[in-house]
Please model this.
Amino acid sequence: MIDTDEVHLKIIVYYWQTTNNYIATTYNRINYWVKIMSLLMQVKRTVEVVKSFPGLGEKIKKAREGDKRSLSKICRESGISRPYWYQLENEQIYSSVSEEMIRRIEATLGVDLGVIFED
Model:
């Protein structure tokens, strides 16, 4: 005769072992990927160089005035607000302007503003 308690116990032990193996396997996989990602981690170093360009605001203004588009359209295309654009033209900026922003202005207006950093 089959002892049902023994069968139940075997099923419980089997389930417990299977679950623990699954948990251990998952834990090992996670640890493996954490180790791989730590080996692949990249570090970026940004070097900040600040340089003055006297008259840059006037160059931006002349380039804008030579463009047939409205200031609103130019600002939209370059991603710069109208008030900030006027601050740039009047050189009323109290922090450094990013090179990326100058490059966007140049691309939008199709000009070279002469902003060069020697490496």
User: Anything to note?
Assistant: Residues 52 and 96 are 9 Å apart (CA to CA). The chain is about 60% helix and 0% strand. The helical segments are 4-40, 56-65, 71-78, 82-89, 99-109. The two ends are 88 Å apart (CA to CA).
